[in-house]
Amino acid sequence: MKILTLHSNWIKVKPVKRAVKNAEEVPEDYSLEGKEALVVFTAIEKGDNENTVDNAVKEIMKTVDQVKAKEIIVYPYAHLSSNLSDLDTAKKLFLLLSEKLGAKHAPFGWYKQFDISVKGHPLAELSKEIKATENLEEKRHGLKKNFYIMDVDGKLYNVDEYNFKPGEEEFKTLVEKEALGKELPSKGEPEYIKVMKKFGFDWEPASDVGHMRYGPQATLMFNLVSDYVRDLVSKFEFPVYEVRGTNLFNVRLPAIAEHAKLFGDRLYSLEAGNKEFIMRYAACHQQFSMIKDWILSYKNLPFGAFEIADSYRLEQSGEVVFAFRLRRFFMPDMHVFCKDKKQAKELFMTIHKKIYDEIEKLGREYWDLYNVTEEFLEENKDWIHELVKYKGKPVLISTVPQGEFYWTINIEYHIIDKTGTPREIGTVQMDIGNAKRFDIKYTNHEGKQKHPVILHTAIIGGIERYLYALFDTALHKKNPTLPLWITPTQVRLCPVKDKHLDKAKEILDILEKENIRVDVDDRNETIPKKVRDAEEEWVPYIVVIGDKEIEKGVLAVRTRETGEVKEMKAEDLIEEIKERTKGYPFRPLNNAKFISVRPHF
Asked: Is 262 in contact with 285 (CB distance < 8 Å)?
C-alpha cells in the first residue's frame, strides 16, 4: 500500500462519473468536505491484506498525533502505484482502512474533482509505503503454552500440584508471574532509579522513549562492564572472535526478512533511498551475515563470535523499564558455532555453569525458566535434568510446539529484585534454524556441507541489565555498596584544612600510580560535610588527612561497607584494594581529580 498524507486547511470533493463497475454507491448530490483534516491518498497494491491495513492505521495515527489533525479523510488514489491490487480486494481494503481509522472517505471507483488547501509545515506532506508483516509475536501469544515444574529428582509437576518448600519463596514469585499470570503489586518508583540517576544514568528526553544517556561516572561503569565481559568470553576453552559491524540491515534480503518476522512489531524500521531497513534486535544479523562468508571446516568448530551490540527493540512505551527494558541497549552477545547437537549440549552446560558463577559473584541467585519445544523435552529429559541438578533447585518449564521458534531450548535466568519482581538477566539458547536461514555451513570430516548448531548467550545479560543487577544488589545491603572494581571513585581524600592539601596531593599521586581511582575534596567545607557527601556518593574508602595523621604517618580510613574507621598505612590500603579488585578490569577516573572544579552533572 502506498499513501500520501496531506495536512489540509480544507478539502472539498465531488464525484463526477463512475470509473469502474464495482464503484461505491453514492447519492446523486453527494459531496464531501473537511476542515483541519489529514487527507490520506491511498493506493491498494498486490499482496496487501488486512495486516497491511493494520500497519497503515498505526502509521497514519502517528501522523495524526504529530500534526494534531481534527479529522481524517481517506481518498482512493490509484495513481500512486503501478502495482495495483484487483478491484474487489482494493475496494474491500480501502473501506476497511476507512472504518478502522473512523474516517470519512471519498467514494471508491469514481472520477472526482477536488479542491484542497495544504498547510506549509514540514510534516504537511508525507509519503509512505506500507508493507504487510507477519507478527509472530502476536501469533505466539495465541499459542497454548504448557507449564511444568521439574524438581531436582527430575520429576515433572503441573504448576498447581507442586508444593513449594522453605527457601523457594522467590521461585514461587517467578511461577506465579510467568505461569499463572499473576499481576505483581505496584510499589511506586523503585529506589534503584533514583540512585542510578545520581551516578549519571538517565533517560534522553531528546530521543525516543526507552533511550538512555550516560554521564562521566555512568560511562566509566559502562566501559568497565564491557571490559569485564570481553575478558570473560576470552577465557572459554574454545576460541572466541570479537567482531564488529553495522546495526542497519536491508529487510528485503530473504534471510533478514525471515529473521525479522520472528520479532514482528518489536523491530525499529526506516526507509532510505527507496529501501526499507531494520535496526538489529541483537548481534545475530551482523554475525550471521559475516560468518556465512567464512570458509569453515569441522576443524574450526567449536568457536564463538562476540560483539557488544547496540540493539534496538520497539518495546511498548508502557513496558519500558529504566536500565532494564529499553528500546536501545547494549548486548554483549556471543554465538557459539557447534558441529552438532551433541557438542552443542556439552557447551550449553559449560555456559549454564558460567552464567551461575557470575551471578553468585554478586551474592545473588537465579531462578530459571526453561522454554523448550515439546519434542525437545521428550527426547532430552535426562539432559535437562542434568542442567537442573547443577544447582539443586527446581525450575519452571514452559513448552511450545515444535517449529514455532528457531530454538529448541531457551533458558531465562531471573533474579527477584527488591520490589519482588522477577527480572531476566542472563540467557542461553540452542538455535537449530538460523544457520540454514543464513546459509552458514562448514565442511565435515567426510567432505560434506553441514549447518552448525548455534548457541546464543548473554552471560551477564545486557550491559544495562547487569548494571541494574549491581544496583539492585547494593540496595539489599545495610550500607549499599557497589563492587569495588566498578565504583567510580574508590578512594576520596579529605584534607582537614588547606594546609593539608599538599599531603593529600602526594597521597593521590601514590594511589594513582597503583591504578586506584582517587580524588580529593579540596572544597572549603567541614570534614563532617565532606564525609557526608562522600557517603552520599557511595565512596568505599574515605580518607581524612589532618595534623594527627601527618604526624603519625598514617591515614584515617573510613570503610563504607563496615562503617568502621581505622588507621592504615598507605601501602596497606593499596594492598587491600588490590586484593579486592584482583582479576577485574581497571580504567582511570573519568572525572576531575579535585571536587572544587567539577561541574554539577
From this structure: no
